[in-house]
Write a structure and sequence with these properties.
With about 450 residues, the chain is of the alpha/beta class. It contains 14 helices and 19 strands. About 35% of the residues lie in helices and about 20% in strands. Helix 1 runs parallel beside helix 2, helix 5 packs across helix 6 and helix 13 packs antiparallel against helix 14. The two termini are about 25 Å apart.
Length: about 450
């Protein structure tokens, strides 16, 4: 039996190896398209991608699957994931597809699917697609005169830029602000700097020369070292780092200090709560968010609800609780008043609006709490994840006992890579380092 196709963020893997092959992409297009044929109108799917070389292989394969079952295809080219979500809704499409492996290196790729409402597909719908793909049954192909058609959308970049700019408070401008933006040589390399410039900023651009291989390489939200240097060297007011598909953002203040997703959520929640905009009485974060965030929000009367890791699980809980702010420490920030998924550009515009309205420097408003010491290590594995072995279970139990009352421990399998993530946080930095080391050593031994 073939391994599962879907992880926490769609399908992901090494390009041209299962499951990221043209054959699987074709079958996913057929299966997803068939499940989203509704009514007697012309059915449409929006397909976007980032800048990876393998996008040239997966894009036509997916399109062939959709066209073969009678769905029209709208190509939008390299565009951020949140732009695909927005366009799926705006164009009244039946389905949206983003070809991207987000923050992963160029050799990986992925397929993210959005329903007609712009939200990522549910686990249940993904299982239906997976069943159709793995069943091996011949799909119900359209007759020759009912094949779908394909076209490219004119001025797609302008559509998204205007959408993002319209989230910025009316009457405010970025005139006088110098901003360094690192687009990770990814999907937002055109639209993000343009939006900032059109709002009045002096923009210094990094990571805007994609070549198919350099996405996320020594740049973007997973490596902010170049951005930190550039902010200080250029006397910039703020640095913005996006990832490969621009659904996450990390900020750097004017001193070169990194501001992660937890601090960004604290800033946005504070402003929205004080203006009466915050819905649901709190925000939704994940089990990875720092305990310092939870304590800070509690001090201002805002609840923190935790979801499992993955921005779509954050969104699901936001919908259940009626919240309009949520996100992840890694920089996925979901602002439900604007979009249905994490949007790095729109989140960064919220931070810039706070700086303009407050009049203080980023370093003075972006660090609202002192995070507790937190350590995360990743252990790569092959084959089955070694979490259920006695060696690992004993190490985890011992770590929990040692942290009892003074911290917390989280061990989980990554949903996007063959990694075991081991995280501990607490008051005692030496203790959490020792706990993490012991568990990682156990995982490594069990995986041999």
């Amino acid at each position: 039996m073939a391994p599962e196709l879907f992880g926490t963020d769609g399908i992901r893997g090494t390009a041209n190896a299962y499951p990221m092959t043209a054959e699987i992409a074709l079958k996913v297009g057929q299966a997803a398209g068939r499940l989203h044929m509704r009514g007697d109108h012309r059915h449409t799917v929006v397909i976007g991608k980032d800048t990876r070389l393998s996008g040239y292989m997966l894009e036509p394969a997916l399109a062939a699957g959709f066209i073969g079952i009678g769905m029209d295809v709208i190509f939008v080219g390299p565009m951020p994931t949140p732009a695909v979500a927005m366009l799926t809704r705006s164009l009244r499409a039946d389905l949206g597809v983003m070809i991207s492996a987000s923050h992963n290196a160029f050799q990986d790729n992925g397929i993210k699917l959005f329903g007609p409402d712009g939200y990522k597909l549910s686990d249940e719908r993904e299982r239906e697609i997976e069943h159709l793909v793995s069943a091996g049954e011949a799909p119900a192909l359209a007759p020759a005169d009912e094949l779908g058609r394909a076209k490219r959308l004119d001025d797609v970049e302008g559509r998204y830029i205007e959408f993002a700019k319209n989230t910025f408070p009316k009457g405010l401008r970025l005139d006088g602000l110098r901003i360094v933006i690192d687009c990770a040589n990814g999907a937002a390399y055109k639209v993000a700097p343009s939006a900032l410039w059109e709002l009045g900023a002096d923009v210094i651009r990094l990571g805007v020369s994609p070549d198919g291989f350099n996405i996320n390489r020594d740049c973007g939200s997973t490596d902010t070292s170049q951005l930190c240097r550039s902010v200080v060297e250029n006397g910039a007011h703020l640095g913005i780092a996006l990832d490969g598909d621009a659904d996450r953002v990390i900020v750097v203040d004017e001193t070169g200090k990194v501001v992660d997703g937890d601090q960004l959520m604290a800033l946005i929640a504070t402003g929205w709560a004080s203006s009466g905009r915050l819905a649901g009485g709190g925000i939704v974060a994940t089990v990875m968010s720092n305990l310092g965030l939870e304590r800070y929000l509690d001090s201002i009367g805002v609840a923190l609800y935790r979801a499992q890791v993955g921005d779509r699980y954050v969104v699901e809980q936001m919908k259940e609780r009626g919240c309009n702010v949520g996100g992840e420490q890694s920089g996925h920030i979901i602002l439900a008043d604007y979009n249905t998924t994490g949007d790095g550009l729109i989140a960064s515009l919220e931070v810039l609006a706070a700086i303009v309205q407050d009049g203080r420097k980023a370093s003075e408003i972006c660090h609202l709490f002192e995070p507790l010491p937190q350590l995360l290590r990743n252990v790569r594995f092959s084959g089955e994840p070694p979490l259920e072995t006695e060696l690992v279970r004993d190490a985890v139990k011992d770590g929990e006992d040692r942290l009892s009352g003074s911290g917390r421990l989280l061990i989980r399998k990554s949903g996007t890579e063959p990694l075991i993530r081991v995280m501990a946080e607490g008051e005692d930095e030496a203790l959490i380092a020792s706990v993490v080391d012991d568990i990682c050593n156990a995982v490594e031994q069990a995986g041999r």
